[in-house]
Structures are given as structure tokens and as C-alpha cells.
Fold this sequence. Notes:
Elements: E1 17-23, H1 25-29, H2 35-43, H3 45-54, H4 56-65, H5 67-81, H6 87-105, H7 108-119, E2 123-131, H8 132-142, E3 146-154, E4 160-165, H9 172-184, E5 196-203, H10 209-214, E6 217-220
Parallel strand pairs: 1-2, 1-5, 2-3, 5-6
Antiparallel strand pairs: 3-4
Amino acid sequence: MTAPPRPEAVPAPPPSEAVVAAFDFDGTLTHGGSVWPFLVAIRGRPAVAGAAVVSARRLLAAALLGGPHADMAKEALFRRTLAGLPADEVADRAAAFGPAHYRRRARADVRHRLEWHRAQGHRLLIVSASPQCYLDAVGLELGVDAVLATGLAVGPDGRLTGNYDGPNCRGPEKLTRVRQWMKEHPPPPAGSAAIADVLWAYGNSDGDRFLLGGADVGVDAGRLGRLGALRRFPRLSQLPAADGDVTSSGGAGGRSGASRPGTRWRRRSAERR
């Protein structure tokens, strides 16, 4: 007797949204910062220590006041340590420094979360105030879709000026850069269904507060808990185990993310029109 024909598989409905997961670097993807180790790798410990002594007042103001003070202090430090160096030489050394630093200081819990997003087909970003020149190499190693970081200006002679190339990528600038990237890289259409981006953001410090606050899901990956600057956001350790799909409402493992404290849910399709 002839076997009955097998029914055709019913295609899954097209997605109504696409997820972008943005990760801070220093203190989030890694333990601790990377700027000071980078400067030491490029200039040596004595030169960097001397620059720190000269810039001590600005660095103290940056630590206490943050914001523009932090931007100016870091740029002043770059001028004292990087100005005049051949940009190509620094780029080559930075490309070696970035992956080596990440391998030494990587946080396994955050890497696991990044890989979970990748497994769901989400687009991945690194967004950081640290220099782009070495984070690009980290982004290649991690296989992310883009790295949004602080550029270093190059003069007409091919040497670093010590100044930023554009704004320092911290505070509100992080959210601005991520939104701009999402606008320029909209998700591909799925049939006739409209797709809206959903942004997950992971950070650990006050410099990430605007990014997490402007995301649909902001996650505190810091270690200070209730004492941290991001305490109003759900903590990484509080998220459901990263073994379920992100639902259409953005939650993991079937739970609605809208019920979690510190999250925002809104559609961004109108912003792209």
C-alpha cells in the first residue's frame, strides 16, 4: 500500500522584530579597564607614569565629577602619551594588544551572554569609550557586527595628534552612536511583515547609564549591585538562564521583559521613517 504523502512543513511566521545586543567593553566584557594597559604597551610604564603625574589634577576631577571632565582628562592624557607617534605603527601594535588584553581579562559570564545572543541570530555590537584602534581587533576576534568606539585623530603628517577623532564615545554619545548604527543598518524585511529593532544593552558604570536607559532592555553587568550607578537596572545575574529564545516582547525563556524593573519597551520603526 502506498504511503500517504507527508504534509509540507508549515513555515514559521516571519519575525516582527530584530534584536541588537550592545556590550560595553571595559568592566563589562572584561575585568577592569584597558586604556592604561594600552598606553603602557605603546609608550612604556615610565612615560605613562610621568604623564599621569602631570595630569593628576585633571584625572582627579574626572574621577570625582565624570562627564566632560572625564572626556577632557583622557584627551589630555592621550596628548601627553600618543601625540607625534606614527599612526600606522600604533595601529599595528594596537591590533596585537587588543585581542591579547581581551584573552587575559575576559569575563566568562558576559561572553556566555554574548554567545547566547549570537545563537539567537541577534546582531552584536561593542560600544566603548576606549580607542577604536585596538577594539576593532577585539571585534574581529569576537565576530561582532560592528565596533563603536573612540577614534584617535591623525594629522596630515600621518602621526597621531593626541586628540579625539570625533566625540569620546561615552555617556550620551554611546546611545547616539548605537541608534545611528541601527538606523543605517536596519534589519532585512521578512516578507510583508514590518520589523522593528529591539535593543539590549549591557554596561557596568555610570558612563553606560544613558545607553542602558535608552535601550529596550538595559542590563547591569557591574559587580557593585545595589551600590552601583546602574542599580535601577536588572542585573546580569538576575536574568533567566540563557537557554531560551527571546520572545516577541523581548523576554528570555518565555518571561516578559516588560515586567522587569529598569527596562523600557518601545517600537523604533517610527524613528526610521
